[in-house]
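anyone seen this seq b4? input:
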Amino acid sequence: MLVAGPADAPEQRLSVRIDGERRSAIADVGLVGASESGDEVVVNVEALELRLGSGGFDIVHVNLTRGLGGSGTAGAHVMKLNYTSLQHAVAPVEEGDPQATTPPAPQLPLGRPAAVLALHGQLAPLAWAFARAGGGARLGYVQTAGGALPGGHSCVVRELREGGLLAGHLTAGPAFGGLDGDAITTAAALHHGLTALGWDAAVAGPGPGILGSGSALGHGGLQALDSAHTALALGCETVLVPRMSSTDPRERHRGVSHHTRTVLELLLAPVSVAVPAGHAPGSDDGHRWVERDVDPAGYAQTGLPTRSMGREDPLFFAAALAAGGALHDMIGGR
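predicted toks r here
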């Protein structure tokens, strides 16, 4: 086995030999420890064998050479990936005094805006448009279920943090390994980010990749329904980032995707939906459609991702750019 990537990175990219074949694999350092050339590892190959496209990777399950003596997180007792062979303890950001008779009441309503993603690919254009609106407002990201669960799996999150476009990154629910901590629930992550960490606005959504079945309800995009309800319940003005496409070969995702339409139909309260100018629907569905001018050319010059699911898709990125500007506008309305 050959190793590409430092041992102190959240993930290492490895070159492994399986049945005589040289393949690439990913090792989550927090789960399996750091690997070195020559180590013997057990690799889960199922996702790649299923040809899942951008979501298919060989994943290291355990390092037999040096990964069996981990000490875990001292004093932690809350489990992530609980009741699986990869369960591990974390110190959640909402940890309170276990001896307290009554937990302190949360600071509600939060009164700060939140955006809800349909796909992880919307994060970079949203964060760029938010920052470009000026004023130095601080945007934090809450990674939820629906896509990749390891917080270290997103190169985009690290790039946005290093470039000052994200002020923080928390993982919530089954997602783990956030750069700024783990939360048991999305509600706790939003509350912690918008109060203790001082974010001016938050964006919640899945990590890279998405779960999908081709059905109306069986897909990771439906996580947006839970995240939007949570944000609304906490007193956040909420903007939904619609999944839109001008090039997806599947008709159900053209224009406003059926993923987004389903979420809008099921929401129990109205939200804002940001779209590029000229793309608001003519019918009244009870939600607030916000049209904004966007700057795709300016975004394309940043070096941030400009392809979605391996293809150029201008409308996909334009919708996220519109949402970043709309989210920033909500700060001024506080």
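DSSP finds nine helices and 19 strands in the chain. The chain has two domains: 2-63, 114-332. kinda curious what u guys think
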